[in-house]
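Request: Have a read of the protein record below and say how the chain folds.
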Amino acid sequence: MNAKSLPPTREATLAEAHATVTELTEAIDARPPGRVPGGPGPSPCTMQNTGEGGDAVPAVLTAQRGRGPARTMTVTYIPGQEHSSEETWPSPPDPGDLSRRIARRRADLKLSRAQVAARAGISPRYLEYLERYPARPSVLALRQVAAALRTTPAMLLGAGAQGPARHGCPAAVPVTVKLGQAECWRLIAAGGIGRIGFTTASGPLVMPVNFAVVAGTIVIRTAHGSLIQAHAFDQVAFEVDDLDDALCQGWSVLVSGPAHQVLQPDELRHLREHCAVRPWPSGEHEVYVRIAPTRITGRSVEAQ
């Protein structure tokens, strides 16, 4: 049909529709989902996922121009046809631990951002933000992302990071870095849980203990008559580590030196008043043991 034969009202409608489609196309090509070029205020173009997952993720774009009716345009995302959106972000990527765990889990499952976003009920743009920058998503959003990645919020947050590693990282190349003494002290300065090792009549023994760092020494508490007290004047080893299986990275610090039971009254009173080491096991733990390091070494491992 010739456009010149149309009534003026329909001709205007066609022109307006053509302008709307052009604007939406430019918005899709040049802007993040849900935004079009323009000034401040709410965008007249919004995007909403309508799919439940799978290989194709449909979305609905709705725009309204002037006083005319809203016009809807459906866009289908096809995995593998993502394009870089570096130019749309205000700063370079600076991922936090949560970001790395989300990205790594998604890569392990061989899922695109759009697939995970559709499963989680969030926008691909927001998922990309979670993978690029340190973020504090809401409890609901974290649960949705964890469910989409077939894991738990606790695992994405690093729960159990100090537990035994469940598997290696065969696809990654581990990089080991030796730590200097200053860095070793910095890592263990906050105290926490470590492992003390010494030699017994039946062979070497390693035990987990709570510890604190006081004046360049390692301080632990134990009970009268304990195995640790029996070796309180031995040459010992002490190890602290922090491992993250999800990120395939961690560090360990090893201290060696003579131990001694604190017996001097003033020193003992000072530790009781100011040393914040509280053993987890119940019962009395009135024996203080200090380790004076003669050697401290450490290393960190990170998958590249």
Notes: The first strand starts at residue 45 and ends at 49. Confidence is low (pLDDT under 50) at residues 1-8, 31-67, 70-84. The radius of gyration is 30 Å. The chain has three domains: 3-77, 88-156, 174-303.
